[in-house]
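Progress against Task 2.4 (sequence-to-structure conversion) is shown through the following example record, which the project officer requested during the mid-term review.
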Amino acid sequence: MAIFAVFLLVIGTSMWFGEWILGSLGWGVLHGVLLFISVGLVAVLAALGVSARRIVGALAVGIVLGVVVGLIFGYNLPNRAYTAIGESLNLAVDPAYRPLVVGVVLWMLIGLIVGIIAAFRMTSRRFVAIAGLVVFGAIFGAFTSITFVAQVAAGIGITVAYLAWIGLMALDVSRTGIDVEALRARFTPTQTIDTSKETLEWLQKRMPPGIG
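Structure tokens generated for the chain above:
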């Protein structure tokens, strides 16, 4: 019941925070899931011997990225940039849809260029990589062309912070690897085993002849 109470407290607080601060229970559910994943990953990394400094460092970077992304969408900077580009090019597009068109086309071109560069380093599935980046660019351009209210921008920023924290922790482990020998030494009760052997030898020396 105590464990259930803790779950209820964490989940309830997350959903209440999402509804009260961010305006939707959906944010609370999403952030609660990401919180549990983050804490679970931290526990695994701590068990593997990853230092707290590296974990906290990843968290700090994630928070900074989340704040930056939240401010960018809070002030609708991408939408304003797309609008300015469309006006400077004098596009024959309805001003209401001009940011969407500019954002989609711009990021599709960026995805195409990045895909072509990446294709030179690949031996197979080059077309799939290029097409995937172009489609991703179109989706990203359409998403960033939206004008967000402050609550939604904050929700996006918190989501980015969690995802960045999880991604940076996973990337850190993938780069540095896991010292299997150190891990085995950490979880092997060497001192207990040695003490047991010494105790057994001591008892065998003091047993009467013919016993043991």
